[in-house]
């Protein structure tokens, strides 16, 4: 609910311009509700039209991606790059390959990315891209041909000082490798800093693979310590998803003394009261791209259940949603609260619906919003760019230590901003405000562009 006439006008325009972009509206409304707290101290935001410029992407590129499948049939997908805001640095944000990808999803992700990237304290703007291509069930050859075709258009819009894509859902090390190979071939040079999430043999950073999941746990540990005098040690944890973020969140939570008892994929979830055996999950999901269901066949005492959303009915102290947007609605949030959850921190982007966040906040559950809690991936991507510029590599321990420092300061910056603007403990507002402050200042400094 917006009280400011100015922000209400901005929001109405967002909805009127693109009435079917529901995910984007959801992300914008949450941020505007937080910015409302800052407006009295920043009259220049309205005078200079900062907020109406902030909610409009600088550029949205949409393109055809033709490729040939293993049967020799021509297939056509749609590719996108949303270059949202470059006020504090080159556009930076992942590529998502998933059948649900459309402009609304990519605009919401690109918009959130601006604030997330700002929160890292590193000089990176916000963007996002992807395609409705589904890598699931495709051969390596098909994925390679798709990636080559995708990059044959994308290359003209990106560059180390312009726009630096990375991975996201459906885009892991294999896809980044094919994308980088095609970029290198077209450009005829080795511009390592054009993509992040690269393999270690050609300019990748140690600890990038682990960074989002590890960073999520560093953020959560600091939130627990500072706001409740608690830690992961001895806690029961439920993690949705079993992809990159979920797997490394599980690894770090376990190493911090927690017991992770459930994980999922888009078909269903596994429950292992003895504690998830991550070696088995990694073998199924990372080595073979299999289904999480297979875990129950391999590990006695564990069970498999269809409907991945029911994972939130399992009692836990800490919930880490790491699958996809809007996976926790009011029902799932109520079930978690009823079962005594103490903290929820978002590894995925916007996994909690607004009504779910409200339920957590009303119940006094600690809530770490995605743009703060999952910023470790992009922060380490920016560290990868640093190393590429220096033509030097840090050790795993050096990158991990920097990641931990960054996540700890993201927590404190969000926490302090919430306190400063009169909503103590509200990390949603705190992260939005702390992230926006720098971008808003830069936009004021650059004039009306
Ligand atoms: P992956 O593709 O590695 O894994 C995604 C996981 O979520 C899989 O287990 C997948 O199941 C499940 N999933 C995907 N879509 C759905 C859906 N519609 N319903 C239910 N489950 C689904 O992706 P990542 O781990 O990289 O990303 C997960 C989330 O984290 C995303 O929201 C992403 O934007 C966010 N994120 C990722 C970062 C990164 O560094 N990778 C950085 C910051 C945020 P299945 O195997 O069945 O598809």
Labels describing this entry:
449 residues, alpha/beta, Rossmann fold, 3 domains, seven-stranded mixed beta sheet, binds NADPH dihydro-nicotinamide-adenine-dinucleotide phosphate
Query: Numbering strands along the chain, what is their spatial order in the largest sheet?
Result: 9-8-7-6-10-11-12
**CA(first)-CA(last) distance:** 29 Å
* SSE order, one letter for each helix or strand: HHHHEEEHEHEHHEHEEHHEEHEHEHHHH
What's the CATH superfamily of the largest domain, by name?
NAD(P)-binding Rossmann-like Domain
Beta-strand segment tally: 12
* Bound compounds: NADPH dihydro-nicotinamide-adenine-dinucleotide phosphate
Total domain count: 3
What gyration radius follows from the Cα positions, in whole Å? 21 Å
Strand content: 15-25%
Give the CA-based shape.
globular
CATH topology of the largest domain: Rossmann fold
Note the total helix count. Answer: 17
CATH architecture of the largest domain: 3-Layer(aba) Sandwich
CATH top level assignment of the largest domain: Alpha Beta
- Tell me the helix content: 40-55%
Please state the structural category.
Answer: alpha/beta
Rounded average pLDDT: 97
The stretches of 5 or more residues where confidence is low (pLDDT under 50) are: none
Largest sheet: 7 strands, mixed
């Amino acid at each position: 609910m917006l009280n400011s006439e100015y922000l209400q006008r901005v929001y109405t325009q967002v909805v009127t311009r693109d009435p079917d972009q529901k995910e984007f509206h959801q992300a914008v409304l949450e941020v505007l509700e937080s910015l409302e707290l800052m407006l009295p101290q920043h009259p220049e935001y309205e005078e200079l039209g900062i907020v109406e410029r902030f909610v409009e992407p600088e550029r949205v590129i949409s393109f055809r991606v033709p490729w040939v499948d293993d049967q020799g049939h021509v297939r056509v997908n749609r590719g996108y790059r949303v270059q949202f805001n470059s006020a504090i640095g080159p556009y930076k944000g992942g590529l998502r390959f998933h059948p649900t990808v459309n402009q609304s999803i990519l605009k919401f992700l690109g918009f959130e990315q601006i604030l997330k990237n700002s929160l890292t304290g590193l000089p990176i703007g916000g963007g996002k891209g992807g395609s409705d291509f589904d890598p699931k069930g495709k051969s390596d050859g098909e994925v390679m041909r798709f990636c080559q075709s995708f990059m044959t258009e994308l290359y003209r819009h990106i560059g180390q000082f312009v726009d630096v894509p990375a991975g996201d859902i459906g885009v892991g090390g294999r896809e980044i490798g094919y994308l980088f190979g095609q970029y290198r071939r077209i450009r005829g040079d080795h511009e390592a800093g054009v993509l992040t999430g690269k393999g270690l043999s050609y300019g990748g950073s140690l600890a990038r693979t682990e960074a989002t999941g590890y960073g999520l746990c560093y953020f959560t540990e600091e939130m627990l310590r500072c706001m409740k005098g608690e830690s992961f040690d001895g806690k029961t944890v439920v993690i949705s998803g079993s992809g990159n973020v979920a797997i490394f969140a599980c690894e770090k939570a376990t190493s911090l003394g927690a017991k992770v008892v459930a994980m999922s994929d888009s078909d269903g979830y596994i429950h292992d009261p003895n504690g998830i055996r991550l070696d088995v999950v990694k073998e199924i999901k990372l080595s073979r791209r299999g289904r999480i269901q297979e875990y129950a066949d391999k590990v006695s005492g564990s069970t498999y259940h269809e409907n991945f959303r029911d994972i939130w009915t399992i009692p836990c102290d800490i919930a880490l949603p790491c699958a996809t947007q809007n996976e926790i609605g009011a029902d799932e949030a109520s079930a978690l609260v009823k079962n005594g959850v103490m903290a929820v921190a978002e590894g995925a982007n916007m996994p909690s619906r607004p009504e779910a966040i409200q339920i957590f906040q009303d119940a006094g559950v600690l809530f770490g919003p995605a743009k703060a809690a999952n910023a470790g991936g992009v922060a380490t991507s920016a560290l990868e760019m640093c190393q590429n510029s220096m033509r030097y590599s840090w050790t795993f321990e050096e990158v991990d230590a920097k990641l931990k420092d960054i996540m700890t300061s993201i927590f404190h910056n969000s926490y302090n901003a919430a306190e400063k603007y009169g909503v103590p403990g509200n990390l949603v507002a705190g992260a939005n405000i702390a992230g926006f402050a720098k971008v808003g200042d830069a936009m004021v400094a650059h004039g009306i562009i």
